[in-house]
Every structure is written in C-alpha cells, then in structure tokens.
C-alpha cells in the first residue's frame, strides 16, 4: 500500500497547494512543540505599565489587560489548542469507527438501530451537537474535548459505514467468514486495512474542524478556563475591546484561521494523493428494513442419505426483500452429497445456484432469510449450532472457491498471511508454524516457489495461481466438502483445465466431496458424478453425469445440451438457443416455471408445479410430460473434448 501511495503523495507535494499545506501544518506542529519552552516566560510576564498597548517594536501585537505580550501568548497557546483538538479528533475517530462498524460487528439486527441513531445525528449541525454535549459534560477543557469528539463521531461513522458497505460483500470477506474468523478479527484484519486511506484523510480534515470548534467553545466560555488559555479564550477576552485594541482579537483569530486552513488543506491534498474526494466520500447508503422470512410453499421428496453423507439439504427456501415485497429465489431445493462424491449444479443466471451455495456456507445474512426442513453438514444441524460451533465446523471442514480469484483475497495482506490465519484461528498454531503450514499448502496446489510466493500480495499472482491459492486456503484445515462457485469462469481454457484437474486430485486424495457450480454443462458432465439442473430456484432434474447425454428427461436439460456448440456442427446453421428468457425471481409464474419456454407445455403445466419423480433408478425429474419426451427426436449434441475435461 505504501509503495502505491508514495508516488502520488510526492506528486501532490510538488503542487503549490500541497507544498503550502505541508508547510503550514509543519509550522503549526513545530510551534506547538517549541513555543511553550521558548516563550512561556515572556507570554506570562505581567507589566501593569504596558496595559492595552498597541503594536510596537517591543510588543509586535500589543499587550492585553494585564500588560502581557499578545504575540508570545498566541505562540504559546498553539500547544494547548492543537493538543485539545487532537484529543477531540481521536475521540471522534474511535467513536466513529465503533459506530460505523456496528452492523458488521453486531449483525444487521442489532447494528440497524445504531445506524439509525447515526443517521439522525448527522442531520444536526456539528456545532449544535457540540453545544448540546458541552452542557451535559460541563464547562472546562475536559467537557469541551468530549463534546467536540462525540459531535464529530456521527460524520466519521457515516463515512466508515459507507466504506464498509462497499467491501462487505467482497469474496475475501466471505472467505474469512467461512474460515471461521470472528467478526472482530474480520474488521481489524480484513476491513479496516482496505478503508484506512480515506479514514486517514477524513481524520486530518476532522482535526482542522475540531480546532475551529474548540476555539468556538472557548470563545463562548465553555472551553478552556483561566489560568489556562487557548486561541478561542484569547479571542473572547480581546473581543470586548476590539474597537480600541483590535490586535487583542485579531491575532488569535488569524492563528485559528491559519491553523484550521492548514489541516483542511493538508487533508484535501492527501485526498487528491490517494485518489479520493474527501468532500463527497461521506455519503452513506440507507439502511434497509428487514422483512419476515417466507414460509416454505412446497415440499420436496425426502433426500436419500446414508452414513457417509457429508451434506444433506431438504426443502431449502431462501427469501430476500424485493422492491415490491418478499422474493423467494430458491424454492424447495433438496439434495445430498456423500463423501468423495462430486455433484455439479448447472442452470442459467438467476436460477439460484450461487445463493444455494451461500446458504450452505451460512453467508446469507439479514434481511435475507434461510429456512429448511433439514440443513445438515457432517451430521450437524447448521440451523441450530451456536455461532462459535458454526465457525469451528465450517472453518475446518468446508472450503469455498469463489468465481473471481482476485476478489477472493484481501488485497492489503500477503497471501501467506491470509492462509496462515486459518491455522492460527482453528489449529491454534503460532505465527511461524501457521506460515509454514501455508507454504506447505501452496506447494500442495503446485504453486512454484511457495516460500517466495507466500510473501507476495494477491496482485502479484496470475489468475490461475490465485485460484490455486484459494484452493490451498481451503486445504489449510481438513475439508470434507469443497464448494466451488464458478471457479473457472474468469480463467482461460488451459488454466481452467489445470484448476479442475487440481480439484479432482484433491477430491480423490482426501475423499472430499465437491459441489461444483457452473454455467458450462460440459464442464460439469466431465468432472462430476451427478448433475443437478436448476431453473427458477428449483431443481428440475437430478441424474448421473454419465447419463446426461442419453437419459436426460426434462425439456430444460435437453435444451441446455442442445445449446452446447460442437466442433463438428454445420457452420451454416444458426446456433441452437432456448427461446424466451428466464423469469425474475420476483415474477415467477404459477405452475411449471419453464412452461412458457417449453414446447411440451399445456394447461396442466401452467396450473400446477410438477413434483420431482424418481424413475426407479435414482434419477429425479420434475416434469409432467417426461413420458412424451422422444429421445430420438432430440437435437444432436456432441461432447466437447478438452475444455474443462480431466483425464
């Protein structure tokens, strides 16, 4: 991060505004350190013969009501003014971080009231809030510091919440949660390092604002009290005689303006250096109101399970709030995975494949809701486990491989440290042993030079190496299930084949179950034992991968197969496509969802949802007209040799 920001900082420092800002801030800080020991005696010397004198060679800014030199008093007051402003800024930043991260630390249910309070507080002017808190905490420096700090906290909280919202859905956050990393650790290790730059910029600008606000409270008599003095108190003392002796008020007033300008200019220059407009970065997103969970609307047949079943899902429903009410994009999904078995899930975008995987990994949070008759992993009911037990189970026995390998890693941390975190949390290894374990896992997924690569950042890896490193992260524990959500979509064909072969080798070596989600039905056919075909949130067919080309009975499965191009197809003929388009989850029609696109559909299809029916050989098909499917009339499909195929 430092190497990326430094050139921009140097470039900004060369501009007139940047150089001026740095010079002003440096001058203020140097005065805050050196002025009291150098000029405190001159500033506090009382000379009744020089009361309210004007500017002269002896007293550059004149004297006050006790004959004390105003110029030296302004210089000495720099330390207390800057010190109190810094304390108020620190309080505001800490309180703002706690309030801004509350939804992530406490969860949506408990974090939402905190966000609502912050939104209300931001609506009030900062000075009005400072006056309100000053009355509560009382007159004096301590009360003013607390008042200004708490008054500035809502703005910092709003900015923090907005920044967190921008990265909370990233894959590396989800990966950390699947690995069982606690919420506090996620915030400290994965969230704050990625939003640190704008927060530093905001804190710099807050320092200037706090200095001005503190001067205002002292001017009103609510801040620093005699015998101490800061610029605001000096400004208040000199205001009564401003027409007779203007320097008594003018000198501290100029000091306040210059110091505030210095910090604000420095913050703006820093914002430009890191590519952030600090004036608009504090716009937050409104909190959403949770909606009640949707009750299951239909039932699926009981899932066949055995003693070696790793994952059992029965009648899974996932509901999320939509613009016009509750939406249920996953409706009654049921399936099971045995140890060492590879099951593929295919379907068009929006069919509910990835959302099903997120529910298994417990990544669906409020306002979304998950309900199921049974959702068991390794014999444990995921709906009933405590958060601590859930983190322990998923962190050691479930591995997630996401679609985009770049977003699967925290860009602010080295790859080795991210892998080692799993061992530190769950295996209680010290830092050195955890890192050694991470290097060993990188070597296991065939990353060359694992010792060197462990010390590199994710952007220094190629796409295929990042995806292999993600698999290595899953192997830090002893996974019983790997959920791979579109793991090869962002990769070229050669790397696709390498990644899929690696997943197959891991599965065979450790008897690990694999749930492979993909748009590519050919990839699933060649790398899985069973295929689940999803459409509009339901599983419409469940059959053996070896029977996919010859025994598929659902019209949608047949249409997917027919749409796969081949190397031997007639190039003069148009590509086969499925007519129409999938329905939005908020507007799924009654009856069979595929009926409007199906050539076999009739009135019964439009009126009633077909249940999954077992053909007696373990194949389940949800269609009213499987008996009308003539396999001899199917469009010819050909097996594509090479892409995603393991041999």
Descriptive account of the structure:
49% of the residues lie in helices and 11% in strands. The strands form 2 sheets. It has an 8-stranded mixed β-sheet, sandwiched between helices. Strand 1 (309-322) and strand 2 form a beta hairpin. The protein has 647 residues and is an alpha/beta fold. The radius of gyration is 33 Å and the shape is elongated. The protein folds into 3 domains: 2-273, MetI-like (MetI-like fold), CATH 1.10.3720; 309-535, Rossmann fold (3-Layer(aba) Sandwich), CATH 3.40.50.300; 555-633, no CATH class.
Poorly predicted runs: 1-5, 276-300, 630-647
Strand order of the largest sheet: 7-8-9-3-10-11-13-12
The CATH topology annotation of the largest domain reads as MetI-like fold
Mean pLDDT: 81
Q: Strand content of the residues, in percent?
A: 5-15%
